[in-house]
Design a protein that fits this description.
The protein is of the alpha+beta class and 139 residues long. The chain has a single domain, classed as Thiol Ester Dehydrase, Chain A. The chain is built from three helices and five strands; from the N terminus they run βααββββα. It has a five-stranded antiparallel sheet, covered by helices on one side.
Protein backbone atom coordinates (compact mmCIF):
# COMPACT_ATOMS: atom_id res chain seq x y z
CA UNK A 1 0.00 0.00 0.00
CA UNK A 2 1.02 3.59 -0.51
CA UNK A 3 3.12 5.31 2.12
CA UNK A 4 1.97 8.72 3.33
CA UNK A 5 4.63 11.03 4.78
CA UNK A 6 4.22 14.18 6.88
CA UNK A 7 6.99 16.57 8.02
CA UNK A 8 7.24 17.42 11.72
CA UNK A 9 9.66 19.92 13.28
CA UNK A 10 10.87 19.18 16.82
CA UNK A 11 10.11 22.12 19.09
CA UNK A 12 11.64 22.80 22.47
CA UNK A 13 8.36 21.75 24.12
CA UNK A 14 8.77 18.27 22.56
CA UNK A 15 12.00 17.60 24.44
CA UNK A 16 12.67 16.31 27.94
CA UNK A 17 15.21 17.43 30.52
CA UNK A 18 17.89 15.49 28.63
CA UNK A 19 17.30 17.54 25.49
CA UNK A 20 15.82 14.71 23.43
CA UNK A 21 12.27 14.14 22.23
CA UNK A 22 10.17 12.74 25.08
CA UNK A 23 9.12 9.21 24.15
CA UNK A 24 5.34 9.86 24.22
CA UNK A 25 5.71 12.68 21.71
CA UNK A 26 6.59 10.21 18.97
CA UNK A 27 3.03 8.90 19.36
CA UNK A 28 1.75 12.47 18.92
CA UNK A 29 3.84 12.82 15.76
CA UNK A 30 2.36 9.57 14.46
CA UNK A 31 -1.15 10.78 15.29
CA UNK A 32 -0.53 13.96 13.28
CA UNK A 33 0.59 11.92 10.28
CA UNK A 34 -2.52 9.71 10.42
CA UNK A 35 -4.75 12.79 10.76
CA UNK A 36 -3.07 14.43 7.77
CA UNK A 37 -3.35 11.16 5.82
CA UNK A 38 -7.11 11.15 6.44
CA UNK A 39 -7.28 14.83 5.46
CA UNK A 40 -5.34 14.08 2.25
CA UNK A 41 -8.12 11.63 1.36
CA UNK A 42 -10.66 14.44 1.76
CA UNK A 43 -11.99 13.64 5.23
CA UNK A 44 -11.97 15.99 8.21
CA UNK A 45 -12.39 14.32 11.59
CA UNK A 46 -14.79 16.93 12.96
CA UNK A 47 -16.99 16.52 9.87
CA UNK A 48 -16.97 12.73 10.27
CA UNK A 49 -18.33 13.16 13.80
CA UNK A 50 -20.95 15.72 12.71
CA UNK A 51 -22.07 14.02 9.48
CA UNK A 52 -21.43 10.31 10.04
CA UNK A 53 -21.37 10.01 13.85
CA UNK A 54 -18.00 8.22 13.67
CA UNK A 55 -14.57 8.84 15.09
CA UNK A 56 -11.30 6.95 15.10
CA UNK A 57 -9.55 5.91 18.30
CA UNK A 58 -6.31 4.10 19.04
CA UNK A 59 -6.94 0.50 20.10
CA UNK A 60 -3.35 -0.75 20.38
CA UNK A 61 0.20 0.55 20.03
CA UNK A 62 3.54 -1.18 19.71
CA UNK A 63 6.54 1.14 19.41
CA UNK A 64 10.29 0.72 19.13
CA UNK A 65 12.53 3.64 20.03
CA UNK A 66 15.79 3.31 18.11
CA UNK A 67 17.59 6.68 18.23
CA UNK A 68 16.85 10.12 19.68
CA UNK A 69 15.57 13.20 17.90
CA UNK A 70 16.59 16.56 19.34
CA UNK A 71 15.38 20.15 19.32
CA UNK A 72 14.97 21.62 15.82
CA UNK A 73 15.32 18.31 13.95
CA UNK A 74 13.08 18.03 10.92
CA UNK A 75 11.39 14.64 10.92
CA UNK A 76 9.44 12.67 8.37
CA UNK A 77 6.60 10.64 9.84
CA UNK A 78 5.19 7.95 7.57
CA UNK A 79 1.95 6.00 7.74
CA UNK A 80 1.08 2.89 5.76
CA UNK A 81 -1.94 0.64 6.18
CA UNK A 82 -0.85 -2.95 6.74
CA UNK A 83 -4.19 -4.49 7.79
CA UNK A 84 -7.79 -3.47 7.41
CA UNK A 85 -11.21 -4.85 8.14
CA UNK A 86 -14.73 -3.45 8.47
CA UNK A 87 -14.09 -1.60 11.74
CA UNK A 88 -10.33 -1.14 12.06
CA UNK A 89 -7.13 -0.14 10.31
CA UNK A 90 -3.61 -1.09 11.35
CA UNK A 91 -0.79 1.23 10.38
CA UNK A 92 2.94 0.73 10.19
CA UNK A 93 4.53 4.06 11.05
CA UNK A 94 8.09 5.30 11.04
CA UNK A 95 9.74 8.48 12.25
CA UNK A 96 12.97 9.34 10.45
CA UNK A 97 15.27 12.35 10.62
CA UNK A 98 15.01 14.24 7.32
CA UNK A 99 18.68 15.22 7.11
CA UNK A 100 20.09 11.68 7.15
CA UNK A 101 16.97 9.47 6.84
CA UNK A 102 17.93 7.73 10.10
CA UNK A 103 15.11 5.64 11.55
CA UNK A 104 14.36 6.96 15.04
CA UNK A 105 11.11 5.25 15.97
CA UNK A 106 8.85 2.67 14.39
CA UNK A 107 5.49 1.40 15.44
CA UNK A 108 2.32 -0.45 14.65
CA UNK A 109 -0.87 1.32 15.60
CA UNK A 110 -4.35 -0.20 15.40
CA UNK A 111 -7.16 2.29 14.94
CA UNK A 112 -10.81 1.39 15.48
CA UNK A 113 -13.84 3.22 14.10
CA UNK A 114 -16.33 4.11 16.84
CA UNK A 115 -19.87 5.42 16.82
CA UNK A 116 -19.42 8.88 18.36
CA UNK A 117 -22.71 8.62 20.31
CA UNK A 118 -22.27 5.16 21.84
CA UNK A 119 -18.45 4.86 21.66
CA UNK A 120 -18.89 1.31 20.40
CA UNK A 121 -17.17 -0.17 17.33
CA UNK A 122 -18.90 0.49 14.03
CA UNK A 123 -18.17 0.00 10.34
CA UNK A 124 -15.79 2.42 8.68
CA UNK A 125 -17.91 4.51 6.30
CA UNK A 126 -17.94 3.01 2.82
CA UNK A 127 -16.76 6.26 1.19
CA UNK A 128 -13.59 6.08 3.30
CA UNK A 129 -13.03 2.42 2.45
CA UNK A 130 -13.52 3.23 -1.25
CA UNK A 131 -10.80 5.91 -1.04
CA UNK A 132 -8.46 3.54 0.80
CA UNK A 133 -8.99 0.84 -1.82
CA UNK A 134 -8.33 3.43 -4.54
CA UNK A 135 -4.95 4.47 -3.13
CA UNK A 136 -4.04 0.82 -2.68
CA UNK A 137 -4.54 0.24 -6.42
CA UNK A 138 -2.48 3.34 -7.27
CA UNK A 139 0.52 2.14 -5.25
Amino acid sequence: MNIFSWPVRVYYEDTDSGGVVYYANYLKFMERARSEWLRSLGFEQDELIANDAVLFAVRAVQADYLAPAVFNDLLNVSARIIKQNKVSLSFEQQVTRATDNKLLCSGEIKIVCLNSDTMSPTRIPERIMTKIKGIDREG
